[in-house]
Known about the structure:
Chain A contains 10 helices and 10 strands.
Amino acid sequence: MFVSRRTLLAVVLATVLAPHPVDAQTPVKVVASFSILTDMVKNVGGEHVEVTSLVGPDGDAHVYQPTPADARAIATAQVLIVNGFGFEGWMDRLVKVAAFKGVRVVATQGVTSHTMTEIEGGKKTKVTDPHAWQDLQRGMVYVRNVVEGLAKADPARASLYRANGDAYLAKLRELDAWIVTELSAVPKEKRQVITSHDAFAYFGRRYGVSFKAPVGFSTESEPSAKDVAALITQIQRQKIRAIFIENMSDPRLLQQLASEGGAAVGGTLYADALSAPDGPAATYIDMFRHNVRQLVPAMRQN
Amino acid sequence: MSFSELALQPFIEFAFMRRALIGLLALALGCGPVGVFLVLRRMSLMGDALAHAILPGAAIGYLAAGLSVGAMGIGGFAAGLIVALIAGLVARATDLREDASLAATFLISLALGVMIVTLRGSAVDLMHVLFGSVLAVDDEALLLVASISSITLAALAVFYRPLVVECFDPGFLKAMGVNGGLYHIGFLMLVVLNLVAGFQALGTLMALGLLLLPPAAATFWADEIWALAALSVAFAAVAGLIGLLISYHINVPSGPTIVLTAGAFYIASVLFGRRGSIADRLLIRAHRAA
């Protein structure tokens, strides 16, 4: 009989690491693909979940390389939460290898995506922008999906998850309103920002800010001289002073852009990952607070 | 579009284009002659191996001092040199051939580098951070490339004769009572230096592309080593200029465009070069038949 190596590995992992049935005492084991989802799970599940983040704080999920420990974590997990929209390209293979049998939650399920025409190296391609969590209204759909996923995996505590979820959603609604107030205080024509990669389109559409970046959605792409020149011209013409780097990307190109455009790099925005627990953006809510507090004074100088 | 719009305006208008061009010219000056000796010594693939070998050093430099070109450069240089020296020593002291010994050593070094990068815990792609991009050359990187080119040219001026002799007739040097191994080590240092300069400032692909494609193309046009070196420098510089302009005007990524331009020079040379090219060989055959 011919058995492929992958199947064999999957079978072995499945037998050794089969998920245990949920009972009232043990916490539900949840694996989330990156730190923002992890934070949502913590808010919904509290002490009843034990959540592992595959891509940690300040990590870059676009180019993440999974480890055997990740496959192990997924194999023993009862719930797996991913962003979807093509954000975690490495996930499908990992799930297959780990023979995951629990509840799989796609956080963007039911979220309308922005399909944007990405112009990179002169080539136009339609890409689904995965960074939907940067819009809090869409983030709230994420939270509802997380609630339903946990409830499905652990029906005994479903009402508890729903209550926690509602409390968390209320906080997010309040935060959303605060951001709208803060940003609408800045004149519309000044709401222009340059960042190191295109991660803020959802944020920009929701809150009326125009974001530009030298490379596209993914941190992997390489810019062309024309793109860089166009950005510099724009910085100079429109006197853009709000230039930010992101926590997980290479700052050098942006520093060059800023200095040639006659501006300075303003600070760090958190886009695809939260900061370490002692950092300024340790939670999903803190991330928005931090970003808005960075953006508003910088945009006023535009 | 006039010539000035086509070729001058991008450089007049944008400092990043000027920096990229100067960085490329400086790199071409150092890489041209070093690449010629690499090709003549049948060590063309060594550049590729050393490119991997410098990773652990650069990673340690990054971990120790953050995103500093200096620290990462020194780390990378040390790692590359250690790998080259160990590989050379093993090849001389044992029966193993130099290519196998180098492959073994660089693989160990590369694995060590990946280990260090991963153990740091963060998933930031260090390979992105460790290697620069031609459009993001800053003052520090420019200074590094320029100094390394100057050191390379000065060193080659001093060691030119013995290096040439060692290329073609190592026995002669030995008979004259000169230790050829010393020159070999000196040359390896220059190779590693130039690679480090290229990686830090311009990225991996660019550094190797400008180191090896121009000399490989030049061998189809010239015989003398000085002529090969001069031609390589010219090819590399022109490829850099044309590649940058193409990337600017038709909006394609700069690094690959520059290397592809150098690649186009190489292919044209393989086909139509003055000596040893396909056209040349066909011509000789036609002569013989006649």
